[in-house]
Amino acid sequence: MLDELVKSPKENECLEFKLNFHSLEEIGEQISALSNSACLHNQAKGYLVFGVEDTTHKIVGTTFGAKTHKKGNEDLEHWLATRLNPRIDFSVYEFDYEEDKHISLFVIPATQNRPVTFLHQAYIKIGSVTRKLSDFAEKERKIWNTGDYQLENDIAKSGLSASDIVRLLSTETYFGLLEILQMK
After folding, report:
1. What is the rounded CA–CA span in Å between residue 159 and residue 45?
2. Which residues on neighbouring strands pair with residue 129, listed in sequence order?
3. Averaged pLDDT in 10-residue chunks for the chain of 184 residues
4. What local confidence, expressed as pLDDT, does residue 17 receive?
5. What is the rounded distance in angstroms from the CA atom of residue 101 to the CA atom of residue 36?
6. Residue 164 has what pLDDT?
7. Which residue among 11, 16, 147, 161 is buried most deeply as judged by most CB within 10 Å?
8. Are 29 and 119 in contact (CB under 8 A)?
């Protein structure tokens, strides 16, 4: 996958290269921006790669270990995931591309139907630049209007018997309330 990513002519809305770690907040902002941008560009995923020069795309390796990095006593992955909304299911991979070229790779799914925020702020990539999504109202509107997903059409739980459904729906309570309403 890394060999394919570095073939890209330049960083773009769905691809960000970094040499080394700068800040936890920057990673969170990039995850938000890449997820939102992937949605707008009809891509399934965005990628944040540590260990690649952003101008030459030369794989040089990084000292940053995304899987082992911590914020206080909390693992980086968990720290990031709990500050994203919605809590998208991004993946983090670490590997040695060559003997002395360590890579940390974040694979970030495109959001659906609403922007991903980090610490209550949504971000977007415009070309290779990360900006606040609130500065681009039309792009934000497009994210909210993507897809035709409706929660009401999802199956909440499958494989249930009729008695399980009655129990889970609390029909006794429902009919009790209905009777009270009819008595008034």
Report:
1. 31
2. 126
3. 93 95 95 97 96 94 94 94 96 94 97 95 95 96 77 73 82 76 59
4. 96
5. 30
6. 84
7. 16
8. no
The predicted model scores a pTM of 0.79
What are the DSSP E strand ranges found in 81-128? 84-85, 91-98, 101-109, 117-118, 121-126
Domain ranges of the chain: 2-151
Residue 176 has, within 13 A of its CA and on its CB side, a CA count of: 5
Alpha-carbon torsion 106, 112, 117, 122, what sign?
Answer: positive
Q: Are 140 and 111 in contact (CB under 8 A)?
A: no
Range 97-119 burial, b when 16+ CB lie within 10 A, else e: beeebbbbbbbbbbbeeebbbbe
| Burial of 3 per CB tally in 10 Å (0-12, 13-18, 19+) | exposed
| 3-class DSSP state of 121 | strand
- The confidence score (pLDDT) of residue 26 equals 96
